[in-house]
Amino acid sequence: MDYEDQLDRALEQSPEIASGGDRFEVPDPEVRPEGNVTVWENFEAVHDRLARDPDHLMRFLQSELGTSAQIDDRGRARFTGDFKQQRVADALEAYVEGFVTCSECGSPDTRLVDERGTTVLKCDACGAISSVPDI
Ligand SMILES: [Zn+2]
Fold first, then answer.
1. Is residue 45 part of a domain?
2. Cβ distance 100 to 52 under 8 Å?
3. 129 CA distance to ligand 1 centroid (A)?
4. Measured in Å, how far apart are the chain's first and last C-alpha atoms?
C-alpha cells in the first residue's frame, strides 16, 4: 500500500474518530444458576447497549439456546435450564453478528427496519442495507 492509499484510508476513517471513535463494547453477560433456571443479571444493560428491542433479542436467544425464557420485573432474563456463561456469551455474539454489526463497514450504528414486510439491517454509518438471519 503506498502513501496515497494510506492517506485516503486515514481520511475515510476520520469521521469515526471525530465522533468519539471508541470501540463498540458489549457488556459480558453476567449469568448465574438459580435452581433449574439461568438468570442473566445484566440483560438490560446489554440490550440497552445494543439499542435493540429486548423482545427481539429474547426471541433470538430462546431459539439459539433452544429453551424458553422470560424477562422478569427487574429486567433480568431468565432461561429455563442450566446454561454456562460461555454458551450465553456465544449466543449474544451471534446476535450482534447477525442483527447489530453492519456487514459492509462493521459499524454497530445500525437499525432494524421493515422493508416491504421484511426486516433488514440498515447502517447509519455507511447506508448499507443487509439482510438478517431468520429467527
Ligand atoms: Zn455500514
1. yes
2. yes
3. 8
4. 41
